[in-house]
Amino acid sequence: MSKPLTCDVVVIGAGVVGAACALYAARAGLDTVVVNRGPVAGGTTGAGEGNLLVSDKEPGPELDLALLSARLWAELAAEGLGEAVEYEAKGGLVVAGTDAVRAALAELAAGQRAAGVEAVDVPADRLADLEPQLAPGLAGGVHYPQDAQVMPALAAAHLLRASGARLCTGREVTGVLRGPGGAVRGVRTDRGDLHAPAVVNAAGTWGGEVAARAGVSLPVLPRRGFVLVTEPLPPRIRHKVYAADYVADVASDAAELQTSAVVEGTPAGPVLIGASRERVGFDRSVSLPALRALAAGATRLFPFLTGVRALRAYAGFRPYLPDHLPAIGPDPRAPGLFHACGHEGAGIGLAPGTGQLIAAALTGRTPAVDPTPFRPDRFPEEAA
Questions:
Q1: What's the pTM?
Q2: Tens digit of pLDDT for each residue in 85-104?
Q3: What angle do CA 49, 258, 246 make, to 5 degrees?
Q4: CB 73 within 8 A of CB 340
């Protein structure tokens, strides 16, 4: 067997969160190795839409992390990564179908503004100024200039490249190495050991399984979602546009199918249509009811889509934790183990902030936001 690799930190997972952890760890001066059992962005990241959203978050820890991440994404784009990852600072538009929903949306936006979000109320008669193709009869909306978008697989690949970290794909982590006192000293893979005093669990929906291999519990569950992809079109949708009930769906604990219309264009031309959520384990089978509901929701917002062909649909699994907050930071139950998983559908948007928090924890620096709400050991053991 070849001599084990030795480094300062091993990151498990080559999705966008693992890539961001590698980038900021490397920028903090740490020799970093990223290990992944499949290809880069082969899990949740590759099945995402690329949302970088502040609009769908209520005031609190996740919104604070989203605002930090939005600033970091803009910095990364300005450094030269913007074109490579298809970064678009397009803004978001959340629309309400009734006066009651509009009032609830306005109340949410007021709280978000107090937390530092740019949120501009849009009366019904001005919606067409932002989105000329929107259906008539909507009650109004809120414009969020800070919302943006990237192409997720490109984002993961280019963050990894920018990190300079060594990348080991096609290697499955079969165990986390622990010393006599319980401290982490690396990982065991099916192709040899990697030795390091720090290990970051950025394994997405498999984060609970990786935690278990380290001897700790983390109740990560998969939440399936589908995305419909249309034929390429000339640019007709200017923002990320979604119905206000999407915010409630994100925060819901329901296991059954939920859908809410989320529609956006892409630089390549196809329109992406989401969003669905359901807890069905790792079942990848196509759900016609989910796809029909997505199509119906999209055409209600944009009637011109009725005559557009959907070329394909794909499924992904959001890594879900019971309180809808990710696990980020050191695990006191296994000194040297850090977690960066459980972001549900917000991982692409929250990746840079997560990476910066992990780098701060690895080096003992002061974090940019309070990491306490994201403590990995906050769940009771029986919850796993």
A1: 0.94
A2: 999 999 999 999 999 999 99
A3: 55
A4: no
